[in-house]
Amino acid sequence: MSTVPPEDAERAPTRRKMAAALRYDQDHDAVPRMVARGQGELADRIIDAAREHGVDVYEDPDLVEILCQLDVNQMVPPKLFLAVAEVMAYVYRMNNRYDEVREMMAKDRSPGSNRKP
């Protein structure tokens, strides 16, 4: 659904696609750090690489715009902790759901299961 009337669509400002990739390892990192950022084609490549490696992609245009102001390898500053924590909570929830579904599928395929794939 568009909120811009068709006759004004050409004049409407558009955001260039942006992507930011964060890394956080509880055992090694005190806080998440920026590992990649980019716009346009580079943003597409970052997103494609994430998906190819099974990394969940979370879309928040306002947050990515702020994160892209960080330098690569820069730790996320305290003022962004809450926003990044929300993203991480989403990713953890998605990963847990994936694990649950994978376990259910494994049980359905186990010998003696009544279900067919």
Automatic annotation (TrEMBL):
Q: Does the keyword Mitochondrion apply?
A: no
Spell out the protein name for this chain.
Flagellar biosynthetic protein FlhB
Transmembrane portions of the chain = none
Q: According to the lineage, what is the superkingdom?
A: Bacteria
One Gene Ontology cellular component annotation held by this UniProt entry? plasma membrane
What single Pfam family name could you report for this chain, choosing any that match? Bac_export_2
Q: Does the keyword NAD apply?
A: no
Q: Which InterPro entries match?
A: T3SS_substrate_exporter, T3SS_substrate_exporter_C
User: Which GO BP annotation is one of this protein's?
Assistant: protein secretion
Family label: Belongs to the type III secretion exporter family.
UniProt entry keywords in alphabetical sequence: Cell projection, Cilium, Flagellum
